[in-house]
Amino acid sequence: MIPQLPPFNYTMMLPEIFLFVWALVVFTYDLVSKRNNGKTVVWLAMLGPAISGVLLYLVGFGNGFGTMFFNDPMAV
Protein backbone atom coordinates (compact mmCIF):
# COMPACT_ATOMS: atom_id res chain seq x y z
CA MET A 1 0.00 0.00 0.00
CA ILE A 2 1.52 3.29 -1.14
CA PRO A 3 0.41 6.37 0.86
CA GLN A 4 -0.85 9.22 -1.30
CA LEU A 5 -0.99 12.87 -0.45
CA PRO A 6 -4.18 14.84 -1.09
CA PRO A 7 -4.14 17.24 -4.04
CA PHE A 8 -2.32 20.49 -3.29
CA ASN A 9 -3.80 23.86 -4.08
CA TYR A 10 -1.38 26.53 -2.92
CA THR A 11 -3.50 29.36 -4.25
CA MET A 12 -6.08 28.68 -1.54
CA MET A 13 -3.37 28.87 1.12
CA LEU A 14 -1.73 31.98 -0.33
CA PRO A 15 -3.15 34.53 2.21
CA GLU A 16 -1.93 32.52 5.20
CA ILE A 17 1.47 31.82 3.63
CA PHE A 18 1.84 35.52 2.80
CA LEU A 19 0.91 36.53 6.35
CA PHE A 20 3.50 34.15 7.83
CA VAL A 21 6.25 35.43 5.52
CA TRP A 22 5.22 39.04 6.21
CA ALA A 23 5.50 38.44 9.96
CA LEU A 24 9.04 37.16 9.40
CA VAL A 25 9.81 40.32 7.42
CA VAL A 26 8.47 42.55 10.21
CA PHE A 27 10.42 40.65 12.88
CA THR A 28 13.60 40.85 10.82
CA TYR A 29 13.15 44.56 10.11
CA ASP A 30 12.57 45.23 13.79
CA LEU A 31 15.67 43.25 14.68
CA VAL A 32 18.07 44.91 12.23
CA SER A 33 16.77 48.50 12.30
CA LYS A 34 17.87 51.07 14.84
CA ARG A 35 14.20 51.87 15.50
CA ASN A 36 14.43 55.51 16.49
CA ASN A 37 10.66 55.58 16.53
CA GLY A 38 8.33 52.59 16.31
CA LYS A 39 6.01 53.99 13.65
CA THR A 40 7.60 52.11 10.75
CA VAL A 41 7.26 48.76 12.49
CA VAL A 42 3.64 49.52 13.39
CA TRP A 43 2.78 50.46 9.80
CA LEU A 44 4.50 47.35 8.47
CA ALA A 45 2.64 45.21 10.99
CA MET A 46 -0.72 46.73 9.99
CA LEU A 47 -0.01 46.44 6.27
CA GLY A 48 0.41 42.64 6.39
CA PRO A 49 -3.13 41.71 7.54
CA ALA A 50 -4.60 44.27 5.12
CA ILE A 51 -2.80 42.69 2.16
CA SER A 52 -3.70 39.23 3.46
CA GLY A 53 -7.37 40.25 3.61
CA VAL A 54 -7.26 41.45 0.00
CA LEU A 55 -5.60 38.17 -1.03
CA LEU A 56 -8.28 36.22 0.85
CA TYR A 57 -10.96 38.09 -1.06
CA LEU A 58 -9.22 37.52 -4.41
CA VAL A 59 -8.50 33.81 -3.89
CA GLY A 60 -12.13 32.82 -3.40
CA PHE A 61 -13.55 29.64 -1.93
CA GLY A 62 -12.45 26.03 -2.03
CA ASN A 63 -10.24 23.36 -0.52
CA GLY A 64 -6.52 23.83 -0.21
CA PHE A 65 -5.10 20.50 0.94
CA GLY A 66 -7.68 17.82 0.43
CA THR A 67 -10.29 18.38 3.13
CA MET A 68 -7.80 19.75 5.68
CA PHE A 69 -7.88 23.39 4.55
CA PHE A 70 -10.99 25.40 3.65
CA ASN A 71 -11.70 28.89 2.41
CA ASP A 72 -15.40 29.37 3.06
CA PRO A 73 -17.69 32.42 3.00
CA MET A 74 -17.29 32.85 6.77
CA ALA A 75 -13.51 33.30 6.35
CA VAL A 76 -13.99 36.02 3.77
Task: Offer a quick outline of the entry.
With about 80 residues, the protein is mainly alpha-helical. The protein contains 2 helices and 2 strands. It is elongated.
Uncertain segments of ≥5 residues (pLDDT<50)?
none
Proportion of residues in β-strands: 5-15%
End-to-end distance: 39 Å
Task: Give the biggest sheet.
Answer: 2 strands, antiparallel
Give the total of beta strands: 2
Strand order within the widest beta sheet: 1-2
Basic shape: elongated
Mean pLDDT: 85
Count of helices?
2
H/E element order: HHEE
Percent of residues in helices comes to: 55-70%
Q: If you had to describe this structure to a student in words, what would you say it looks like?
A:
By secondary structure, the protein is mainly alpha-helical. It is built from two helices and two strands, in the order H-H-E-E. Strands 1-2 form a two-stranded antiparallel sheet. Strand 1 (62-63) and strand 2 form a beta hairpin. Helix 1 (10-32) packs antiparallel against helix 2. It is elongated, with a radius of gyration of 16 Å.
Helices, strands, pairings?
Blueprint: H1 10-32, H2 39-59, E1 62-63, E2 70-71
Antiparallel strand pairs: 1-2
Helix pairs in contact: 1-2
Label this structure with key terms:
single chain, 76 residues, mainly alpha, 2 helices, 2 strands, elongated
